[in-house]
């Protein structure tokens, strides 16, 4: 369960203000208090879930009450725990005044960030998304997480090709799989080729946090258009593939959780237990794969039905997406997949 940054932040109640920290020693603001975060972690653990916190440690808020700038430079900065010497300049975002960048070479700054990470862990947080990780020194992270047991850590490293990722980051974290997101957009776009899914550009599974959608793609569409599948139906079909694929630790955007393909994909993934996909059909508009001898995935993005058949263990099957039921003829299973649909078949 990934939640937005909980520390005291910019006074605006808008979503982006949570990404402008003010004080890492205080959990307060529109999202709730320290006590409420502790209660959330406790309730999540009781349900077999874990809370993952979005962590902003690259910069602070640019509110005028804390920061004075001139000609693209910091003139003065005074926050509850940081002052002017603790910054190394401004991170420019478009035409705005910029955000003050913390100097992570400073022992004081590093200790404050480490205390924040360890404090969140003490409240019951068991994972961390590192915002703007691309702009942070990769050698910072071993220090920040030293002394903690293994937890899920993944960074926002926006690169379109797997070869562009600096390998030093992978010593401490996984990363959003932007290369795979780009492959998904290309495959599911109008006129795209689903056959690309057989060998997509992607990070290795041990490094990957694959996604179809996340908050930046929703809130900042123009900046992330290169990775964003614009059509809602195509996004749901992409989830069927993403969740059936065993590699990585997938992220599902909260607003997409009610989709039939998402619910079905999560159930299918549990039954697949990390086994690989074995492709049995691949075309521009249709693909199909088996997992072992008793699970199957099929996707039809075309506007016409598709006759799908495969060898599978004899028996009775149910499509987790549509709840339709099928019986094999010997070891052959045949079905007509409706237009713009996906099927995830498991023994019924």
Topology of this structure?
Elements: E1 2-3, E2 7-9, E3 21-27, H1 34-46, E4 52-55, E5 67-70, E6 73-77, E7 87-91, E8 99-102, H2 107-123, E9 127-130, H3 140-145, E10 152-155, E11 174-176, H4 178-188, E12 208-209, H5 215-219, H6 232-244, H7 260-272, E13 278-282, E14 286-291, E15 295-300, E16 306-311, E17 316-319, E18 325-327, E19 332-337, E20 341-347
Helix pairs in contact: 6-7
What do you see in this structure?
This protein folds into two domains: 2-275, Alpha-Beta Barrel (TIM Barrel), CATH 3.20.20.80; 282-347, Golgi alpha-mannosidase II (Immunoglobulin-like, Sandwich), CATH 2.60.40. It is of the alpha/beta class. It has seven helices and 20 strands. It has a six-stranded parallel sheet, covered by helices on one side. It has a six-stranded antiparallel sheet with strand order 13-14-15-20-17-18. Strands 2-3 form a two-stranded antiparallel ribbon. 39% of the residues are buried.
């Amino acid at each position: 369960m990934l939640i937005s940054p909980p520390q005291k932040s910019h006074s605006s109640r808008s979503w982006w203000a949570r990404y402008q920290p003010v004080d890492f020693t205080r959990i307060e603001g529109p999202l709730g208090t320290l006590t409420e975060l502790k209660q959330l972690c406790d309730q999540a653990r009781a349900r077999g879930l874990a809370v993952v916190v979005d962590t902003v440690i690259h910069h602070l808020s640019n509110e005028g009450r804390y920061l004075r700038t001139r000609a693209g430079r910091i003139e003065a900065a005074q926050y509850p725990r940081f002052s002017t010497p603790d910054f190394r300049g401004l991170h420019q975002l478009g035409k705005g005044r910029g955000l003050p960048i913390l100097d992570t070479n400073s022992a004081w700054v590093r200790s404050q960030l480490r205390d924040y990470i360890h404090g969140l862990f003490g409240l019951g947080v068991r994972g961390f998304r590192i915002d703007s990780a691309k702009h942070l020194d990769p050698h910072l992270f071993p220090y920040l997480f030293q002394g903690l047991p293994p937890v899920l850590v993944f960074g926002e490293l926006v690169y379109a090709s797997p070869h562009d990722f600096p390998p030093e980051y992978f010593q401490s974290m996984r990363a959003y799989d932007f290369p795979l997101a780009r492959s998904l957009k290309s495959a599911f776009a109008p006129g795209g080729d689903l056959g690309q899914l057989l060998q997509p550009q992607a990070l290795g599974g041990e490094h990957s946090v694959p996604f179809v959608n996340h908050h930046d793609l929703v809130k900042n569409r123009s900046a992330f258009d290169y990775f964003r599948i614009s059509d809602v139906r195509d996004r749901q079909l992409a989830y069927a593939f993403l969740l059936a694929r065993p590699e990585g630790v997938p992220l599902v955007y909260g607003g997409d959780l009610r989709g039939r393909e998402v619910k079905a994909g999560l159930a299918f993934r549990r039954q697949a237990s990390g086994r690989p996909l074995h492709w049995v059909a691949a075309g521009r508009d249709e693909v199909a794969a088996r997992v072992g001898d008793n699970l199957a995935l099929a996707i039809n993005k075309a506007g016409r039905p598709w006759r799908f058949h495969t060898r599978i263990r004899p028996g009775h099957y149910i499509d987790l997406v549509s709840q339709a039921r099928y019986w094999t003829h010997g070891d052959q299973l045949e079905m007509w997949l409706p237009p713009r649909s996906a099927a995830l078949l498991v023994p019924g």
